[in-house]
Amino acid sequence: MDQYRNLCETILSTGTTKEDRTGTGTISVFGYQMRFNLSKGFPLLTTKRIPFRLVVSELLWFLQGDTNVRTLIKQRNSIWNEWAFEKWVKSEDYSGPDMNDFGRRAANDPEFALILEGKMNEFCQQIIDDDDFAATYGDLGPVYGKQWRSWAGAKGEIIDQLQNVIHSIKHNPNSRRHIVSAWNPSEVDEMALPPCHTMFQFYVADGKLSCQLYQRSADVFLGVPFNIASYALLTHLIARECKLEVGEFIHTLGDAHLYLNHMDQVELQLSRSEKTLPELKINSTKSLFELVTEDITVENYDPHPTIKAPIAV
């Protein structure tokens, strides 16, 4: 994936050093675009392993309109755990060791990291076992799934943006309004995390479906490879639902940044050779909203080993 490599190299050579909300510091550029021809292979990074099962389960969670981490935890997907966990440890119901600034403390204190792991496991088990606890502390507010499937209109109506766009693609393919937005100004402050991938638009030409994503904030080492795979998969799934072939995935980035504590990992990744892209397999005839994680796989994925890096929180 030369597109991703070029992005990293551009940031390293032309980026500006900036402070950020995590206090870690970044090198960033503003306004960058990558294009992926989806007929040339599935764009799953090969210079480090990307956990495709997590990509699939999170995307299906969005598509189902879900906003509670319970669904993900049951599928061993921990992507959103820290946001729900933080809600619990800041509540009056929490009792235990101080968890203030738990992400940064764990990165610098191995002993605390073990304590955090134990409390996180306790939290996840209670989310699974206790309906009331899950309802209170598992819900992340009106994040992506809510906005995609249940946008609250000004007149009190509920708008299913995703169903609407599928209907529009099928019945008015030349429309320039095949748009889904996750950025709802009236509800941003209620979300556990304001949406980073804020809006996507579909385009139909020559029997092929293309998708362009606008992402306001892009963690290029940890997040962007995941985002590329997620929206490439979304394009495949919507194309399949609408009986179209796939065209391009176009990824437009606002603030594209590398965290300063990821520099060693980025250099290691850039030193690695690219490998052949895998092939996406959808092993089911189910409709879009009936698919489960096990229905979607990739074949011939042979990446370099995983590169671990600290998460900036």
Automatic annotation (TrEMBL):
<feature type="binding site" description="in other chain">
    <location>
        <begin position="257"/>
        <end position="259"/>
    </location>
    <ligand>
        <name>dUMP</name>
    </ligand>
</feature>
<dbReference type="GO" id="GO:0006235">
    <property type="term" value="P:dTTP biosynthetic process"/>
</dbReference>
<keyword id="KW-0808">Transferase</keyword>
<dbReference type="Pfam" id="PF00303">
    <property type="entry name" value="Thymidylat_synt"/>
</dbReference>
<dbReference type="GO" id="GO:0032259">
    <property type="term" value="P:methylation"/>
</dbReference>
<feature type="binding site" description="in other chain">
    <location>
        <position position="227"/>
    </location>
    <ligand>
        <name>dUMP</name>
    </ligand>
</feature>
<feature type="binding site" description="in other chain">
    <location>
        <position position="21"/>
    </location>
    <ligand>
        <name>dUMP</name>
    </ligand>
</feature>
<feature type="binding site" description="in other chain">
    <location>
        <begin position="216"/>
        <end position="219"/>
    </location>
    <ligand>
        <name>dUMP</name>
    </ligand>
</feature>
<comment type="pathway">
    <text>Pyrimidine metabolism; dTTP biosynthesis.</text>
</comment>
<keyword id="KW-0963">Cytoplasm</keyword>
<comment type="subunit">
    <text>Homodimer.</text>
</comment>
<comment type="similarity">
    <text>Belongs to the thymidylate synthase family. Bacterial-type ThyA subfamily.</text>
</comment>
<dbReference type="InterPro" id="IPR023451">
    <property type="entry name" value="Thymidate_synth/dCMP_Mease_dom"/>
</dbReference>
<feature type="binding site">
    <location>
        <begin position="176"/>
        <end position="177"/>
    </location>
    <ligand>
        <name>dUMP</name>
    </ligand>
</feature>
<feature type="active site">
    <location>
        <position position="196"/>
    </location>
</feature>
<keyword id="KW-0545">Nucleotide biosynthesis</keyword>
<dbReference type="InterPro" id="IPR020940">
    <property type="entry name" value="Thymidylate_synthase_AS"/>
</dbReference>
<comment type="function">
    <text>Catalyzes the reductive methylation of 2'-deoxyuridine-5'-monophosphate (dUMP) to 2'-deoxythymidine-5'-monophosphate (dTMP) while utilizing 5,10-methylenetetrahydrofolate (mTHF) as the methyl donor and reductant in the reaction, yielding dihydrofolate (DHF) as a by-product. This enzymatic reaction provides an intracellular de novo source of dTMP, an essential precursor for DNA biosynthesis.</text>
</comment>
<dbReference type="GO" id="GO:0005829">
    <property type="term" value="C:cytosol"/>
</dbReference>
<dbReference type="InterPro" id="IPR000398">
    <property type="entry name" value="Thymidylate_synthase"/>
</dbReference>
<keyword id="KW-0489">Methyltransferase</keyword>
<dbReference type="GO" id="GO:0004799">
    <property type="term" value="F:thymidylate synthase activity"/>
</dbReference>
<dbReference type="InterPro" id="IPR045097">
    <property type="entry name" value="Thymidate_synth/dCMP_Mease"/>
</dbReference>
<feature type="active site" description="Nucleophile">
    <location>
        <position position="196"/>
    </location>
</feature>
<dbReference type="InterPro" id="IPR036926">
    <property type="entry name" value="Thymidate_synth/dCMP_Mease_sf"/>
</dbReference>
<feature type="binding site">
    <location>
        <position position="312"/>
    </location>
    <ligand>
        <name>(6R)-5,10-methylene-5,6,7,8-tetrahydrofolate</name>
    </ligand>
</feature>
<feature type="binding site">
    <location>
        <position position="219"/>
    </location>
    <ligand>
        <name>(6R)-5,10-methylene-5,6,7,8-tetrahydrofolate</name>
    </ligand>
</feature>
<dbReference type="GO" id="GO:0006231">
    <property type="term" value="P:dTMP biosynthetic process"/>
</dbReference>
<feature type="domain" description="Thymidylate synthase/dCMP hydroxymethylase">
    <location>
        <begin position="3"/>
        <end position="313"/>
    </location>
</feature>
<protein>
    <recommendedName>
        <fullName>Thymidylate synthase</fullName>
        <ecNumber>2.1.1.45</ecNumber>
    </recommendedName>
</protein>
